[in-house]
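@channel anyone free to eyeball this complex?
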Amino acid sequence: MTVELLLYIAAMAIVTYLIRMIPLTAFRKKLKNRFLLSFFRYVPYTVLAAMTIPWILYSTDSFITAAVGCAVALILSFFERSLTLVALCSCAAAYICSLILSLC
Amino acid sequence: MAFSKLRYRHGLRDGFPIGLAYLSVSFGFGISAAAKGIGILPSVIISAVNLTSAGQLAGVDIIAAGGTLIEMMICQFVINLRYCLMGLTLTQKLDETFTTPRRMLCSFFITDEIFAVASSKNGLISDRYICGLGTLPWVGWTLGTLLGAAAGSVLPASVSAALGIAIYGMFIGIIVPAAKKSMGILFAVLVSAALSCILKYVPLFSFISSGFAVIICAVPAAAAAALIFPVKEADENDG
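replying in thread with the prediction:
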């Protein structure tokens, strides 16, 4: 491993760490403002939604298997199954669907 | 003012599906890093010290292209800026055990998925919980990179393709139960998803990086929901 490569890795790691560390360490107040409290309550879900939709449909090698996996995840999560079960079953559904498609 | 009852093992349990998903995602990262001529050991070190997907992929591209260190730092800053927002959000969930060194330690584990699980937990969270929550994802991420870089082509393509959906399945598993119970969350999620589709499918916006796109969707959607569905005081620690 060259020094140059280590420098690249250090630059990556330091910038990434500081972005994570500074807000969590520097911001100590408990917010009282109702708008900000509401905003921070909704942020986790809007972040997840923006990362999931429409990207889940491109997460396997075929739109159809991804749509089937997505449908299974929606159904299981509607019935509030555990995250592990939802994740594994959506993989399994996408895999089984790809096997069926390969037979057609 | 309170202390959280959540222990290290609660974090481990909640982190398991994330670890599993990371194992498969970082497998892909390992393959791609090896294909770009980064050795096995450097690839594993990159994953172990960065613990982030989009930033690492872009970083490896810059290394492979022989870019400058400044370019690397600006690129990482832009792609990972969303962690800043997540860190600020998490400050409101921390219980009183969080001293400065503990905040500095726990902040390393802020990723999209760990943030999502930690911040959607009921009530306050402890430092032990965050460390537990981060452990298996870190192991999965680093181990997956090693396996992918060392033995990239052992998995049949159909299996690795199906594993690609794991992380999104988990996201849905977090969103849907919460949206069922709260009109505000349902509204916020729908607005954010709609914005995300616009950014993805309108060619005008194709120049926006994926890290930035998340911020552009998530911030206005959460702000709109906060205006239309302000949470009641009693809901503060409720979700």
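from a first look: The mean pLDDT of chain A is 91.
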